Amino acid sequence: MPSTFFLYPGTIFVTSEPEIISTILGSCVSVCFFDAALKIGGINHFMLPLWNGAGLASPKYGNIAIEKLLEKMISFGSKKHNLQAKIFGGSEILSNGNSLFSVGKRNIEVAHQLIEDYGIMVKSSHVGGKTGRKIRFNTATGEVIMSFIQPGNIFQ
């Protein structure tokens, strides 16, 4: 039975051990990478699309989080051509019709663009909308179980 781990915003987790990684997403996005050949799984959870070069290059930014996730997968022995990606999150739960910031939408765009630039296949994606999500990523199989979160019920 795999052990479980909760992934906090702005973090990355990669393992070759069977784990169930869970996280809660609103406008944030998580990218899951899975190497079926080596049974290695990795996930990030980023809050903002792009690091602007000021301050720390933190994985709370999509461009940093995806780059660091890929680097970590490669350090575990993965090859880019063996990776599959799954993308979740990016809802506009805080939107009141004002799309000035559209953080969720911008997070989704960054994720898709960078993964395409790296030449990694997106196997599945469940993004956008107005409802938060909880995901559970099985690092041994690459399976992701997703459920919607109703306001006030994030710990279900």
At a glance:
With 156 residues, the chain is an alpha+beta fold. Helices cover 19% and strands 36% of the residues.
Molecular shape: globular
Number of strands: 9
End-to-end gap: 21 Å
N-to-C SSE string, H for helix and E for strand: EEEEEHEHEEE
Q: What is the number of independent domains?
A: 1
- CATH architecture identity: 2-Layer Sandwich
CATH class: Alpha Beta
Largest beta sheet: what is the strand line-up? 2-5-4-6-7
Q: Average pLDDT across residues?
A: 93
Largest β sheet strand count, sense and barrel closure: 5 strands, mixed
Binned, the helix content reads 10-25%
> Any idea what the radius of gyration is?
15 Å
The proportion of residues in beta strands is 35-45%
Please state the structural category: alpha+beta
CATH topology type: 60s Ribosomal Protein L30, Chain: A
Number of helices: 2
Low-confidence stretches: none
Describe the structure.
The protein is α+β, with helices and mostly antiparallel strands. The protein has one domain: 60s Ribosomal Protein L30, Chain: A (2-Layer Sandwich). It is built from 2 helices and 9 strands. The chain has a 5-stranded mixed beta sheet, with helices on one face. Strands 1-3-8-9 form a 4-stranded mixed beta sheet, with no helix packed on it. The protein is globular and about 40 Å long.
